[in-house]
Design brief:
The chain is α+β, with helices and mostly antiparallel strands. It folds into two domains: 95 residues, Ribosomal Protein L25, Chain P; 87 residues, Ribosomal protein L25, C-terminal domain (RNA Polymerase Alpha Subunit, Chain A, domain 2). 16% of the residues lie in helices and 39% in strands. Strand 2 and strand 3 form a beta hairpin.
């Protein structure tokens, strides 16, 4: 499992205005919490945080260094909040971890290959489950769950129960569908229009000036 280092400073300011000012300085407000510990408000360098995420992913073990303290704190990124418009990171939750205790987290699912049912049978691949909830030791956290779908034929599916789990326990419902290959839905527009026209009797033209019978 990858490990990354992140330097943080203790944050004294509170409230929305303070958080806005912090972000304008290129920092990201955060909080560190864990069992038996008082939550600590932090400021994180925005560029360093993005570099960490791009290089190691959000499930990496973080060696968190706070201020001038020499001892690092083992943690992982528990939650990231983004601005709904810009997509920028506006807040990060970090959680203390013990390397000997299992943690619950979500791991992304990545598909590998082109299904046989898509390549040669005219099907469409539907990816319905994009992450997997797992329980594992921090040292066994997978970066992604890779599924090879190249042998998947038309009408076949992969469920959570089909995913091999050697170093972690799956917490997601085992019957949930991850991917399946389905036949394309063909809408016969011309036939529908013709059927609609055939079901409507044409109206007789009205002659202008002709008196209607009472």
């Amino acid at each position: 499992m990858a490990e990354a280092t992140l330097v943080a400073q203790v944050r004294e300011e509170k409230g929305k205005q303070a958080a806005k000012h912090i972000r304008q300085m290129g920092l990201v407000p955060g909080i560190l919490y864990g069992p038996g510990e008082t939550p600590s408000m932090l400021n994180l360098n925005g560029k360093e945080l993005l570099t960490l995420l791009h290089s190691f992913g959000r499930n990496a073990i973080v060696n968190l260094r706070i201020g001038d303290k020499k001892k690092n704190i083992k943690a992982f990124i528990y939650d990231i909040q983004h601005d709904p418009i810009s997509g920028d990171i506006i807040h990060v939750d970090l959680k203390r971890i013990n390397l000997n205790e299992k943690i619950h987290l979500s791991v992304p699912i990545r598909l590998l290959g082109v299904p046989e049912g898509v390549k040669n049978e005219g099907g469409i691949l539907e990816h319905t489950l994009h992450s997997l909830e797992i329980l594992c030791l921090p040292t066994n956290i997978p970066d992604t769950i890779v599924l090879d779908v190249s042998n998947l034929h038309l009408g076949y599916s992969i469920h959570v129960k089909d995913i091999p789990a050697s170093n972690f326990e799956i917490q997601t419902e085992l019957s949930a569908t991850v991917v399946h290959v389905v036949a394309p839905k063909v809408v016969k527009v011309e036939e529908e229009v013709e059927a609609a026209v055939e079901g409507v009797e044409p109206a007789e033209p009205e002659v202008v000036g002709e008196e209607k019978e009472e």
